[in-house]
Every structure is written in structure tokens, then in C-alpha cells.
Task: inverse folding
């Protein structure tokens, strides 16, 4: 039997996933069949609704891939709804302090660990499997915090010691933006911040992640060599756009 993503994360095994921003289930099915370990339904920077998210979660899960959701903000109601829809876990943006991290964990977990309200939706088999789901949620639900602001890096040591945080993922664009250098990943201040992330991650044996937003294989290899173990590679729109541009440019060579 294949180990769960949660168990692989506990063991600090390397896994790779990607990002979905288009609401069509065919996108989720195509990407699920590509070989990713996990896929993230992005509800922060997309027009995906909660109903559309549930359909995407169903498609990903039925394809044998772990469905995660990047919620729009660290909000207990939003997190509760995507978990009730069947997400195996959440990626929570802009976690900048210990308190932010604790809130994310408590929003995913039922009492006494957290304060998540009890509903009988898809995740709980519409009421037929609450006890089973309650046990699963306690042991297998995933909380990944997004480190994407200089404040988060300054508080990273405290964030990484919060019980229930399974790992973190660096959001490079917002991180560089918080330093006044949006998209300037080679700027000394951005590189210094990322070096601090690597040092603290190693110190605490944390599961470190990074979103390689542009699907660049060299960048992916570099981040893997740097020790990141939970890497998101590309996203649906960039895969489509880049492939189209690359192939069309080759077609025009013969003109």
C-alpha cells in the first residue's frame, strides 16, 4: 500500500507537486495523470469558487493524487469549508508569526487540538463516516504554512516550532515584494533572506518547500540541490502558455 503524503512528509521524503488555477476538471485530471505527488487548488490568486474547488478535489483524489488547497487567507471559515470538501490539507498564505501558524493549525483540527467546527459534508461521507474522518483528520490532515514575507523570515524560528505545522513553502514573488524588489530574485536582500530560510530549516529539521513558479528545469534542480523537499513546479496556465509559445516559435523558424 502506498504511503500517504503525510507519512512521506514526516520522513522528509522529496515530493513534487504543482498548482491549479483553472477551474475545469479536465485540467485537474490531465495534471493528475502527469505523475505529480500532490496538486494544489489555488483559491488565493484565481477565480475558483468553493463549489469548483470541491469538483477539482474530487477529480484529483479519484486520480490517486493528494489534493491540497491554497486558501485565500488564514481564515477558519474558509479552511473549514475546503477541508469539509475533501482537501487533504491546506497551504495557508502570509503566515508571518507564531500566532498565525497556530491559527492555521487550529482551523484544520477538531477540538481539543483546534477549534474547527463539525460539519457533515463530502469529507465526512455526508454524515456516514464522521468517526472515521475525525480519526483521519487528527493523524493525516496536512498544514503547510507559506513563508512569503520578510516578517515571516524574521519570525521563522518561532513558526517552525508550532506543533501541527507539517512544513512550509516559500512564495518567492511576495517575499521579494515585501523587500521592495518584486520578481528580482537575484537581489542581495532576497538572497540573504533565502539563505536565512535554509539555515533555520536545517537547524530545526523542518520540511522546507519552494514554489518554482516558472516551469524551469534548471531552477527546479537548483532548489532540490539546495535541500528543499516539498517543491511545487509551475502551474497550469504557465505550462499551457510556455508550451504554446515554444512550439509556435519553432514553427516560425522555417519562414
Result:
Amino acid at each position: 500500500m502506498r504511503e500517504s503524503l503525510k507519512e512521506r512528509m514526516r520522513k522528509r521524503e522529496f515530493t513534487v507537486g504543482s498548482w491549479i488555477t483553472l477551474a475545469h476538471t479536465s485540467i485537474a485530471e490531465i495534471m493528475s495523470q502527469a505523475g505529480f505527488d500532490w496538486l494544489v487548488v489555488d483559491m488565493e490568486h484565481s477565480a475558483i469558487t468553493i463549489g469548483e474547488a470541491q469538483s477539482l478535489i474530487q477529480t484529483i483524489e479519484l486520480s490517486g493524487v493528494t489534493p491540497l488547497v491554497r486558501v485565500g487567507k488564514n481564515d477558519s471559515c474558509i479552511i473549514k469549508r475546503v477541508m469539509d470538501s475533501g482537501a487533504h490539507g491546506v497551504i495557508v498564505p502570509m503566515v508571518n508569526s507564531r500566532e498565525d501558524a497556530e491559527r492555521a493549525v487550529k482551523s484544520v483540527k477538531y477540538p481539543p487540538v483546534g477549534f474547527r467546527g463539525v460539519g457533515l459534508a463530502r469529507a465526512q461521507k455526508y454524515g456516514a463516516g464522521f468517526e472515521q474522518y475525525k480519526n483521519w483528520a487528527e493523524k493525516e490532515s496536512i498544514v503547510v504554512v507559506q513563508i512569503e514575507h520578510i516578517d515571516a523570515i524574521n519570525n521563522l524560528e518561532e513558526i517552525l516550532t508550532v506543533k501541527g505545522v507539517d512544513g512550509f513553502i516559500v512564495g518567492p514573488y511576495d517575499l521579494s515584494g515585501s523587500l521592495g524588489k518584486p520578481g528580482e530574485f537575484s537581489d542581495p536582500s532576497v538572497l540573504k533572506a533565502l539563505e536565512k530560510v535554509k539555515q533555520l530549516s536545517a537547524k530545526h529539521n523542518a520540511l522546507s518547500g519552494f514554489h518554482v513558479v516558472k516551469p524551469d528545469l534548471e531552477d527546479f534542480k537548483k532548489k532540490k540541490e539546495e535541500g528543499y523537499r516539498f517543491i511545487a513546479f509551475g502551474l497550469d496556465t504557465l505550462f499551457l502558455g510556455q508550451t504554446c509559445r515554444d512550439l509556435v516559435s519553432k514553427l516560425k523558424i522555417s519562414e
Summary: Residues 5-254 form a domain with the TIM Barrel fold (CATH 3.20.20.60). The longest helix spans residues 188-203. The first strand starts at residue 15 and ends at 20.
